[in-house]
């Protein structure tokens, strides 16, 4: 009985309510956005101060987009400049250390339309 309690103890810390984690409030481009021009940056807006530990951008069915290096800091918003993006569907994956110390991650996609002929 005692041994079992000891084994379960570490799990109790992991099972914190999801509401305690920091969350992404919005992004630019927004999730699911269809853009007529390639975005010049990605903005992530969280509900509180977090540490953005990773941001990866990949063209769906294609290559990863090289993003500028950033210092990891505590902030509620982060902006990352983008190189020129070719038309296509993109998936941005982010990871943070939540304000409560837990790692949290998420992803969203957006699409860059081909240029319209005048
Ligand atoms: Cu948490």
What would your notes on this structure say?
This protein is mainly β and 118 residues long. It has one domain (22-112): Sandwich (Immunoglobulin-like), CATH 2.60.40.1220. The protein is 11% helix and 47% strand. The chain has one helix and seven strands; from the N terminus they run αβββββββ. Strands 1, 2, 3, 4, 5, 6 and 7 form a seven-stranded mixed beta sheet that branches. Mean pLDDT is 88; it is low at 5-12. It binds copper (II) ion. Copper (II) ion binds at residues 16, 20-21, 98, 100, 102.
Itemize the secondary structure elements and their pairings.
Elements: H1 2-14, E1 24-28, E2 34-35, E3 41-59, E4 64-65, E5 74-81, E6 88-97, E7 103-112
Parallel strand pairs: 2-7
Antiparallel strand pairs: 1-3, 3-4, 3-5, 3-6, 6-7
This protein binds copper (II) ion.
Describe this protein with a few key phrases.
118 residues, mainly beta, Immunoglobulin-like, 7-stranded mixed sheet, 1 helix, 7 strands, elongated, binds copper (II) ion
Oligomer: single chain
Low-pLDDT windows of residues: 5-12
How would you describe the shape?
elongated
Q: What's the overall average pLDDT, rounded? A: 88
Structural class: mainly beta
CATH architecture name = Sandwich
Instruction: Tell me roughly what share of residues is in helical segments.
Output: 10-25%
Task: Tally the helices.
Answer: 1
Number of domains: 1
What is the CATH class? Mainly Beta
Please describe the biggest sheet, giving its number of strands, its sense, and whether it closes into a barrel: 7 strands, mixed
**What is the alpha-carbon Rg in Å?**
18 Å
How much of the sequence lies in strands comes to: over 45%
Could you tell me the CATH topology label.
Immunoglobulin-like
Task: List the ions, cofactors and other small molecules found in this model.
Answer: copper (II) ion
Q: Span between N and C termini?
A: 76 Å
Number of strands: 7
Strand and helix order? HEEEEEEE
């Amino acid at each position: 009985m005692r041994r079992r309690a000891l084994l379960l103890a570490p799990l109790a810390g992991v099972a914190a309510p999801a509401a305690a984690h920091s969350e992404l409030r919005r992004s630019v481009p927004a999730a699911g956005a269809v853009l007529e021009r390639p975005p010049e940056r990605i903005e992530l807006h969280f509900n509180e101060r977090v540490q953005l530990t990773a941001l990866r951008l990949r063209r769906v069915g294609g290559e990863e987009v090289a993003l500028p290096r950033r210092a990891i800091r505590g902030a509620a918003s982060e902006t990352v400049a983008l190189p020129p993006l070719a038309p296509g569907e993109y998936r941005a994956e982010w990871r943070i250390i939540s304000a409560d110390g837990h790692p949290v991650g998420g992803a969203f996609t957006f699409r860059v339309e081909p240029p319209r002929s005048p």
